[in-house]
Design goal:
CATH class of the largest domain: Alpha Beta
Shape: globular
Mean pLDDT: 91
Number of helices: 17
Distance between the termini: 61 Å
CATH topology of the largest domain: Metallo-beta-lactamase, Chain A
Strand order of the largest sheet: 8-7-6-3-2-1-21-22
Length: about 550
């Protein structure tokens, strides 16, 4: 690992070359600054896990030099891992009021609320951490108080965009502060580290105000129950849905923990002031169907979300059926297609009418399309462009656009250490990167034995043999084999495997049968051979051995 106390470097540990799990590091004269700490979801590539976080081992080993963690906004892929990883970082955390309100609830659930030094920074405010002077700059996005960061160092200014768009009427919160961006651009920007999510999308992302105008007209002639699902953190969208409900004479109830938490954080910070408190799930049952609108979590088909349970008719309090309408006021995040299709199929099977952004103005993206990227490059005019927050095709498209705008693009992936100054920027080294799975209340390495075994069980199954032997190693009673998902207990093949397994163990040499470790390993090998002769798969095989007195 190259080490220096006299440079400015950028290192993404997550979120570059992928979407989600954003964890970015800056090093200036030996001092480190972290920007964002988010999570990602397993999806089809990792069906064995629901939630993943970036492995922070590199910066955890240097936490004595870590000055702070700055959160740009309150989306899960930017703050969702803080409660999981802070114990390894042990640094102050800085966020705007709304972001801090969301984070406090997560820290409370993790038992960390009184432990994490959480500092609230006003939108557009500034902080100084060692060699870093950090100016927060308001940007429009699909969550309140999103902030870009102008990071001034002895080597120059880095503009860290966070997630953003240029929206002339974002409905909630201010427009993107183009004047401040231009002011920094006029003074000179060394590099811009910038969002690439929609770098393949031509045109403009659209305005949140367009959705607000469209929703009442869509709802006005609908009968039965209306349910809308959207990203819980999109407070502007939630407010637009509630105002549309009011315009068409419907009461609003919400279902889903994420929605309730966001509502509480939003009202705490003065948002949703023009919207009455939402009804809970129990109160919704007292409202006539034609006068009820439900806002449900689960726009991405999350298995345990309110929308998924309603679609499967397994929600304890909410049901939808023939004559009802569900509006998906969200986009499909790549990787979630199958889960969303399953939810929509389940709803359609129940006679529910579906509305999506394919057919109606029910969603606009919170990320910049290519026209907006061109606009920010015209304002900031960085010498170097560092595309982040996207898969490689997004980064490459962003790099081409940046080059056309006059910036020199610098392509990198998670783990690349990019020295920005002094001298010509270049990748000088790499840091260890990886993913940790959130498994209940613990973190498990994605590459470790626990998840490897789980993947093998998912695709190839598991076979467990049980033996009771006496002190000499003779089998007592009948051996048992359990192979859920592979063989039924009454399958004749199971009986034949048990017989072969029993015979193989009985034929082992007497000294080996008196040693527990050797006997268990030999029994596993015998069972593995018995299964292998009958199947084309290689399931996980284990043996439970119990020794009793003669």
């Amino acid at each position: 690992m190259t080490s220096t106390d006299d440079d400015l470097a950028f290192l993404p540990l997550g979120g570059t070359g992928e979407i989600g799990m954003n964890l970015n590091l800056y090093r200036c004269n030996g001092h480190w600054l972290a920007v964002d700490c988010g999570l990602g979801f397993g999806g089809p590539e990792h069906p064995e896990v629901d939630v993943m976080v970036p492995d922070p081992v590199f910066i955890a080993e240097r936490r004595d030099k870590l000055l702070g963690l700055v959160i740009t906004h309150a989306h899960e892929d930017h703050l969702g891992a803080v409660a999981w990883l802070w114990r390894q970082l042990r640094c102050p955390v800085y966020a705007t009021p709304f972001t801090a309100a969301v984070l406090r609830r997560k820290l409370h659930e993790a038992g960390l609320l009184g432990e994490v030094p959480l500092h609230v920074v006003a939108p557009g405010g500034s902080i100084e951490l060692g060699p870093y002077q950090i100016q927060f700059i308001a940007v429009a996005h699909s969550v309140p108080e999103a902030q870009a960061l102008a990071i001034t160092t002895p080597y120059g200014v880095v503009m860290h965009s966070g997630d953003w768009k240029i929206d002339p009427d974002p409905v909630v919160g201010p427009v993107t502060d183009e004047a401040t961006l231009k002011r920094y651009g006029d003074a000179g920007i060394l590099a811009m580290v910038c969002d690439s999510t929609n770098a393949l999308v031509e045109g403009h992302s659209g305005s949140e105000a367009e959705v607000r105008r469209a929703l009442p007209a869509l709802m006005r002639n609908l009968s039965g129950r209306i349910a809308v699902t959207c990203f819980a953190s999109n407070v502007a969208r939630v407010e637009s849905i509630a105002l549309a409900a009011k315009a068409v004479g419907r009461h609003v109830a919400i279902a889903g923990r994420s929605l309730r938490n966001i509502e509480a954080a939003a009202r705490e910070c003065g948002y949703l002031a023009d919207v009455p408190p939402f009804l809970n799930e129990d109160a919704a049952s007292d409202i006539p169907d034609d006068n009820l609108l439900l806002i449900l979590s689960g726009s991405q088909g999350e298995a345990r979300s309110a929308m998924s349970r309603v679609a499967a008719d397994s929600h304890p309090r909410i049901a939808l059926g023939e004559g009802d309408t569900v509006i998906f006021s969200s986009r499909v995040i790549p990787g979630n297609e199958r889960a969303i299709n399953t939810v929509q199929d389940n709803l359609a099977r129940r006679g529910v009418h579906l509305m999506t952004d394919n057919d109606h103005m029910v969603h606009v993206s919170g990320h910049p399309a290519r026209d907006e990227l061109r606009q920010i490059y015209a304002l900031v005019r960085p010498t170097f462009a560092v595309p982040v927050h996207g898969e490689w095709r997004h980064l490459a498209a962003h790099a081409g656009l940046a080059k056309d705008a006059g910036a020199t693009p610098l392509m990198l992936e998670d783990g690349d250490i990019l020295r920005l100054a002094p001298g010509t920027p270049r990748i000088i080294d790499s840091a260890p990167v990886g993913r940790l799975a959130v498994d209940g209340n613990r973190l498990v390495p994605m590459t470790g034995g626990v998840l490897a075994a789980r993947r093998r069980m998912m695709f190839n199954g598991i076979v467990i043999g049980s033996l009771v032997v006496d002190e000499t190693g003779r089998i007592r009673g009948a051996a048992q084999i359990s192979a859920p998902g592979l063989f039924d207990p009454e399958d004749p093949e199971t009986a034949r495997m048990i017989a072969e397994f029993t015979s193989s163990v009985a034929d082992l040499p007497a000294p080996l049968r008196r040693d527990d470790v050797a006997l268990a390993e030999s029994a596993r090998a015998s069972l593995r051979r018995a299964v292998g002769r009958r199947m084309q798969k290689r399931p996980l095989v284990d043996v439970h051995l119990m020794r009793i007195a003669s």
